[in-house]
Every structure is written in C-alpha cells, then in structure tokens.
Amino acid sequence: DIVMTQSPGSLAVSLGERATVNCKSSQSVLYSSNNKNYLAWYQQKPGQPPKLLIYWASTRESGVPDRFSGSGSGTDFALTISSLQAEDVALYYCQQYYDTPPTFGQGTKVEIK
Amino acid sequence: QVQLQESGPGLVKPSETLSLTCTVSGGSIDSYYWNWIRQPPGKGLEWIGYIYYSGITNYNPSLKSRVTISMDTSKNQFSLKLSSVTAADTAVYYCARSGYVTPLDYWGQGTLVTVSS
Known about the structure:
Mean pLDDT of chain A: 98
Number of strands of chain B: 11
Helix content of chain A: under 10%
Structural class of chain A: mainly beta
Distance between the termini of chain A: 36 Å
Order of helices and strands of chain B: EEEEEEEEEEE
Largest sheet of chain A: 7 strands, mixed
Radius of gyration of chain B: 13 Å
Largest sheet of chain B: 7 strands, mixed
Oligomer: heterodimer
Largest interface: A-B, 22 and 20 residues
C-alpha cells in the first residue's frame, strides 16, 4: 500500500494568516502518461463526513473558496489556506487514488491561535 | 444533487456480520463507483472497497476475506457485509461515490456501528 504521511499533526494559526499542511507519499502518485498527480485533499468538520476540496493535487472542487490551494508533484504535496477563516477549523486529510487500495494520511488538525 | 444515506444496525455482536445499506438519491446508480469507507472513533479513514454498477468489485486486501459489497440497481442501493466482526471494527461507516480512479466526491453522513456484546 502507498503510505501517506501528513505533517504537522496539528497547527494553530491566527485568523487571516496562512496555514500549510504537508503530505508525503511513500511512492510517486504522478502518472507519467497524463502528467497528473492522483492526490486529493479533504476537509472534515466534527460530526460531518469528509468534503472533497482539491483533486489532481491542485484542482479546486466546485464551490470551494479560492483561499484553498493545492500544490506539489510526485511524492510531496501541500494544502495551503491563504487567509484562515473561523469556518476553516477542521481536520484535513490527503488521499492518493493512484493505486489500490486508495489510502489516506492520518489527518492534520487546523485550529485558531 | 446526489445524496447518499447509510442505514443499518448501530450495534453488532462480536463474531457476527455487520450489514449496512446505502441509498442513493438525486441521481442514478448507473455508472460511477460506489464505495465504503470507515473511520474508527478519533482515528483516520480506511477505504473498505467499491462496487461498479456492472457488478465489478474491488476490496481492500486488509479486509478482503471478510467483505462483500453488493448492489440493487432497482432500488438505487448498494450494501456492505463485514463478517466475523470484533471490537476493532467499531467505526463510523461512510458510503461515497467516485469515478474510475478519481477521488470521493459525494459522501453519506455516516453511521456509527459499535461491536459489543
């Protein structure tokens, strides 16, 4: 299985400041034939299911605010919230769908400082 | 807007079979891949498996010997059976939709299943 490792486990950021969550895969999730990274980011708030934010590493899902952005390629990825809002407090997970079984990172908790 | 809703017993005894159903509304179950994912309390997400509308299935090797996913297209439903459960199977179980080698774009609200005598 591809192991997804997120860092940090938690971070506290002031309102309006930038938050960055990192994700590293144990092998590349870049498919060379189409140059796509099979990497997604989800947001999960307490008592709710995960919500898809980003796919193909950097494509925002419809309706997701543009303060959320994804970057990276190969094995190293990042989710950035450019200006943290109170409603962004949540757990964030990365997921690879390059290989089966699809696997998730362990999650990063984003809080307000 | 596609909606998914899980249903089934919230309590299962050890060694018995966990059975859940996911009802899809707002869209046809034809096409797409229909997945089950679970999340133990306070822990991360584990993909269990999927079924394609043609009946093709794919399971997580870690659970493959105990998992069966089936589909009833006439009812727009798909189901999960997990046999020989233990306390380690206690989790919130989610159903979700994906495409072929794409992420999970629609999720149910999840249902907590506790394994306990």
